[in-house]
Amino acid sequence: MYTMKPIVIAILAGAALLFLFSCDEPQKNEDITNDVNKSGAIESAVKVQRLDSLHDILITTHAVWVNNSILKNIEYRDTLPSLGEHYTTAENQDGDTKQVRVKKDYEIYITVK
């Protein structure tokens, strides 16, 4: 029968503890920013507006920043089908609740490569 040497057990225990402590820290996303680098950047915005009861408009805008000024604004508009309505519970300032009908909103996901 094979027995582990104490040094091997100590190394494995240390690695396990290091792994457990590293799991406690939340991951920091260093790519998130609150300010646009206006010396050279492309700032994009996406929003959905209601056109009528059957259609929504997807508006995508891009501002191209060069040397702290906007070189160009680009805007795209696309018509989308409306998602309809659904019922939800609403609450007023007094704490009273009731069922109300609201329009469904699109969820927006952006992938940057």
Topology:
Layout: H1 6-24, E1 40-50, E2 55-66, E3 69-81, E4 85-91, E5 97-103
Antiparallel strand pairs: 1-2, 2-3, 4-5
List keywords for this structure.
alpha+beta, 113 residues, 17% helix, two-stranded antiparallel ribbon, 3-stranded antiparallel beta sheet
Short characterization:
The protein has 113 residues and is of the alpha+beta class.
Give your account of this protein's structure.
The structure is a single chain. The protein is an alpha+beta fold and 113 residues long. The chain has one helix at 6-24; strands spanning 40-50, 55-66, 69-81, 85-91, 97-103. The radius of gyration is 26 Å and the shape is flat. The mean pLDDT is 82.
For the secondary structure, the number of strands is 5
Strand order of the largest sheet: 1-2-3
- Please tell me how large the radius of gyration is: 26 Å
Unreliable runs, pLDDT <50, ≥5 residues?
none
- Helical coverage, percent range: 10-25%
One letter per element, helices H and strands E, the order comes to HEEEEE
Largest sheet: 3 strands, antiparallel
Shape, please? flat
The proportion of strand residues reads 35-45%
Q: Work out the helix count.
A: 1
Overall mean pLDDT score? 82
Q: Gap between N and C termini, in Å?
A: 54 Å
Computed structural class: alpha+beta
